[in-house]
Please model this.
Amino acid sequence: MNRAKQRKSAAQGRKKTAVPRRRPVAQAASRLSSRNRREGSPTPLQREQIVTAALHIVDRHGLNALSMRRLGAELGVDPMAVYYHLPNKQALLDAIVEAVMGSIDLTVDNPAKPPEERVLAAAHAYRDVLLAHVNALPILLAHGPVTPVAMRPVELLIGILRDAGLPPAEALMGMNVIAGAVRGAVGMGPIHEFSEEEFAAMWQALPAAEFPLLAEGLSSSRRTFGEIFDFGIRVLTRGLLAEAGSRHPLPSVSAAKTARRDPQPSTPAARTCRWGPRP
Model:
């Protein structure tokens, strides 16, 4: 009888000292946000406010400086309050991508202009936003757009290429090529625009015998970052437009895979048929 009472008493003691379950982060953040509202916080924390502060940190101090603790300090709130709107850092990075892509001016497109000018205008709008948030470029390279707001500039550029005559798959690939060129140009510079004297000293310092072609190109004329950018986008666009007007476009991805699996036809006529226009 005494042993039964001892076991019952021990079980009751374990219940009293049991460790409470930890609440999920989002649940804890929700409780914290509700408590702040009850305590009369001046302004409830908004998602847009959080994203703006996060992008401000990245712009000023770089991506490595961004943390939930730093973000909470920037907003003057407990870091847990941020989780009520953005459950994890991945969601925060997606929101930053959305903020950057969403700030691209889509009104620059004029459907009445030639396709080359429309693509160049869209590329300029994308470049200008990336230059304004150059520290956010690694986020866009690693994550990319996933939300409707972030996808609108993508849809615009695909639409321009479709209007120019590219089929759906080629327009999508063309969009990726142009967007990649814009991101690459922003990643490379402009860090410093050389003066005439600096430029002349640079190419004159090269051993002409070892670098004859480079020296010849540098000595002919100096090009600014903007001029080089426009040249590259125009060349890419003209190539895409030529592809749209070609009677023998490049093979699709699925056709290329089939070609690798199957033996190549032996006659030129058969090869033309295989890589010919799609019905």
